């Protein structure tokens, strides 16, 4: 499909001009014109939608003899990729079917083929959109009611399978339920008994499914003020309410109603049998969801009333807004404009629904679909386009989210915090900070206190220290980050008495005089080893590492670039001093000693150490859980470091997998443009290297999860010995971080679920800790 941006307005002369066949037109020009006409239908126009559809149907019908293949493929792709215009395209297909029955049949065949391919390739969202399109084609008298009922029945048969994951059955039930609001009235009038049978089947399934996963997917653990409903349960309640209303919904724009007299005369097509393909172990189904609710009707005092949580109109509007977001998220300006021109806006408090949908995607668990910056930049664009209302609605949303921080998921607090700082940075950090001053009196680990501390740290990354001091009230002093300056122990008063001070001074002079790495090692050579016992030579010398790392980073402290250049120049010294994991942890400890007040520098330096292989991923993981970092354990930058460490290892595994696959393909084809074409021996060595790296990744996850369990178990034992409640803020934060590791790296952690269940998350650990693992495992159960 063309990626060209649509025109701002439809030129209504398009249809009249196209009716005059221009023999001189090049085929490619005509094809592009057809694509443009089809894609733009339904956009701004001085004529009615019905008039434009009728005109376009005439144009396409005239071009069918020469361009049928093009028209079919464009329409089929629009049906899948532009779901927000479903009723427009079903009406167009209906009008074409009345003029050319064979074309209607070929289109249905093409869509059936696409549906089968989507299921085979696990493109479940596309498959769901096709099922919904089939349903709306029934309203346009293109597909017979009976064959659609047969399709629904075959989809629901999946719930009777044994030995397949519940998420498979969930998806098929969800696909049927999301199609019913579109075609429910038609089924009610023509196949009421079959419809009742389908609904009884769904009701029976819904009542029996396990919901172990639900607590893990809730943004808030509290049910007040809004219930955190499981997605399928909520949709079933909405469809049940629609059933009670005799399947009359008031949200969808149905242009085919204007053509009912014409469409009802058309011959219909039957869908072929479409049994669900059998489950394969490698199939990955969509995760279940918990519905995000931020507003209710009392939050929207002016204008249209917000539909209730169990009204299907709420679901349909949210779904259409999500479609717009999914389709245009790479172009914030176009996306914002499309959201604000939503067709049903006169019936809804549109700004509130848009903000709720965007925050629902931003805070989506286990992970959001897109980068956080995508949602942040989109909200900024919405504020620019709608300055009279959107900033106020957004401010109201922030206040509601802040008030509900007490029970918010740990990862969601991080995302909210990151977005909030980014948003403020675009508005000169203006905010009613005094309204949140009560947070100063709260425990340091209370969610509100932590949120404000981390938000100001994020603001510091986007500003400078004095600016932070200028825009927050003096009472916020406990939350204000320290000035991000290096801390060099050997430059402090009385430093002469510190072990290694004299050597640090000589090393500093040598580095400033541009010494070589070998000369730097010579300066460090005479330092005693505090680990020395008898004649046994320790594997590393922590004093040498401390003097070298802290001195080098102090000298190179002017900027990131200076630090990275210093690391690059003295890479040999790092590798010589830090050949073991214990030594690498000493490197990280010394780095923290210098830069403990500059969190962003810590992240950058650890990332550099990993890239240059000065430290291993396992060393970073063990350092994070060490006593050295206990005071920083609840700070978000520590978890940024852990996640970048895991991602670094995952990226390395993927790189090796790609290289091995390429080498195998070249070897199999016997063709290669490389100077050294791959051989069997080279491929074998690549396989061994990949296996070793995959094993390292698995061991990294095992280390992380074992250290989590050790930390949590020690906390529980300590609290029991003290006679205090172990469910402190620290305990909840740490459990949240454990869940965050599962969620952010779920694609890889799921590969080790069986190993984790047998070796790490066994029944003898604390039930609260075990529950986090079991809830995660249930996401694909």
TrEMBL record:
It is found in: Nucleus. It holds the Pfam family MIF4G. GO terms for molecular function: RNA cap binding. SUPFAM superfamilies: ARM repeat. This is Nuclear cap-binding protein subunit 1. Residues 646-703 form a coiled coil. Gene3D superfamilies: 1.25.40.180. PANTHER family: CAP BINDING PROTEIN, NUCLEAR CAP-BINDING PROTEIN SUBUNIT 1. It comes from Ixodes scapularis. Residues 31-243 form the MIF4G domain. GO terms for biological process: 7-methylguanosine mRNA capping; mRNA export from nucleus; primary miRNA processing; RNA splicing. Keywords: Coiled coil, mRNA capping, mRNA processing, mRNA splicing, Nucleus, RNA-mediated gene silencing. One of its GO terms (cellular component) is nuclear cap binding complex. Belongs to the NCBP1 family. Component of the nuclear cap-binding complex (CBC), a heterodimer composed of Cbp80 and Cbp20 that interacts with m7GpppG-capped RNA. InterPro entries: ARM-type_fold, CBP80, MIF4G-like_typ-1, MIF4G-like_typ-2, MIF4G-like_typ-3.
């Amino acid at each position: 499909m063309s990626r060209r941006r649509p025109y701002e307005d439809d030129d209504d002369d398009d249809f009249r001009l196209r009716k005059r066949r221009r023999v001189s037109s090049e085929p490619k020009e005509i094809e592009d014109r057809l694509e443009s006409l089809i894609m733009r239908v339904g956009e701004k126009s001085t004529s009615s939608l019905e008039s434009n559809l009728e005109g376009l149907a005439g144009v396409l019908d005239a071009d069918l003899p020469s361009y049928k293949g093009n028209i079919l493929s464009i329409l089929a792709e629009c049906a899948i990729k532009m779901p927000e215009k479903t009723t427009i395209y079903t009406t167009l297909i209906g009008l074409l079917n009345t003029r050319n029955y064979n074309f209607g049949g070929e289109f249905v065949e093409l869509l059936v083929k696409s549906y089968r391919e989507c299921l085979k390739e696990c493109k479940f969202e596309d498959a769901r959109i096709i099922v919904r399109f089939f349903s709306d084609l029934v309203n346009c008298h293109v597909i017979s009611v009976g064959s659609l009922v047969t399709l629904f029945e075959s989809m629901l048969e999946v719930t009777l399978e044994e030995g397949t994951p519940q998420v498979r059955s969930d998806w098929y039930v969800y696909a049927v339920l999301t199609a019913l609001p579109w075609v429910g009235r038609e089924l009610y009038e023509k196949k009421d008994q079959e419809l009742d049978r389908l609904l009884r089947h769904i009701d029976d399934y819904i009542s029996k499914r396990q919901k172990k996963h639900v607590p893990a997917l809730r943004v808030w653990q509290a049910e007040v003020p809004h219930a955190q409903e499981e997605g399928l349960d909520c949709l079933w309640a909405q469809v049940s309410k629609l059933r009670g209303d005799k399947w009359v919904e008031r949200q969808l724009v149905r242009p085919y109603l204007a053509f009912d007299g014409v469409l009802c005369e058309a011959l219909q097509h039957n869908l072929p049998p479409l049994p669900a393909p059998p489950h394969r172990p490698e199939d990955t189904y969509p995760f279940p969801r918990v519905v995000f609710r931020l507003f209710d009707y009392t939050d929207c005092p002016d204008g249209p009333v917000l539909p209730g949580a169990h009204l299907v109109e709420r679901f349909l509007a949210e779904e259409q807004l999500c479609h717009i977001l999914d389709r245009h998220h790479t172009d914030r300006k176009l996306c914002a404009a499309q959201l604000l021109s939503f067709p049903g806006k006169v019936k809804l408090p549109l700004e509130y629904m848009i903000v709720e949908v965007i925050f629902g995607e931003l805070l989506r668990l286990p992970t959001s679909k897109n980068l956080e910056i995508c949602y942040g930049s989109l909200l900024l664009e919405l504020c620019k386009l709608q300055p009279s209302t959107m900033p106020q609605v957004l401010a109201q949303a922030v206040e509601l989210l802040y008030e509900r921080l007490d029970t918010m998921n740990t990862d969601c607090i991080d995302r909210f915090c990151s977005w909030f700082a980014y948003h403020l940075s675009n508005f000169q950090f203006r905010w009613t900070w005094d309204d949140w001053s009560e947070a100063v009196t709260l425990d340091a680990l209370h969610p509100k206190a932590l949120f404000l501390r981390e938000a100001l740290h994020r603001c510091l990354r986007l500003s400078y220290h004095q600016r932070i001091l200028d825009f927050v009230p003096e009472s916020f002093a406990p939350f204000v980050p320290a000035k991000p300056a290096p801390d060099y122990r050997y430059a402090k008063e009385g430093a002469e008495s510190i072990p290694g001070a004299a050597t640090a001074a000589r090393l500093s002079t040598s580095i400033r005089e541009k010494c070589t790495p070998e000369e730097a090692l010579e300066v460090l050579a005479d330092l005693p080893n505090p680990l020395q016992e008898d004649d046994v030579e320790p594997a590393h010398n922590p004093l040498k590492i401390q003097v070298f790392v802290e001195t080098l980073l102090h000298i190179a402290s002017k900027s990131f670039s200076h630090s990275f250049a210093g690391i690059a120049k003295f890479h040999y010294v790092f590798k010589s001093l830090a050949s073991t994991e214990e030594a690498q942890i000493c490197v990280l400890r010394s780095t923290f000693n210098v830069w403990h007040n500059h969190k962003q520098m810590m992240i950058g330096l650890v990332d550099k150490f990993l890239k240059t292989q000065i430290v291993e991923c396992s060393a970073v993981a063990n350092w994070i859980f060490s006593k050295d970092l206990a005071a920083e354990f609840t700070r978000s930058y520590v978890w940024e470091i852990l996640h970048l460490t895991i991602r670094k290892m995952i990226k390395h595994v993927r790189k090796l997998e790609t290289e091995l696959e390429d080498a195998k393909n070249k070897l199999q084809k016997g063709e290669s443009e490389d100077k050294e074409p791959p051989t069997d021996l080279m491929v074998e060595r690549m396989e061994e290297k990949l296996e070793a790296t995959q094993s390292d990744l698995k061991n990294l996850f095992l280390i992380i999860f074992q250290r989590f369990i050790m930390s949590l178990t020690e906390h529980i034992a300590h609290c029991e010995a003290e006679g205090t409640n172990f469910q402190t803020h620290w305990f909840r934060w740490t459990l949240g971080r454990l869940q965050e590791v599962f969620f952010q790296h779920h694609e890889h952690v799921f590969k080790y679920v069986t190993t984790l269940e047998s070796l790490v998350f066994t029944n003898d650990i604390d039930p609260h800790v075990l529950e986090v693992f079991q809830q995660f495992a249930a996401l694909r159960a």
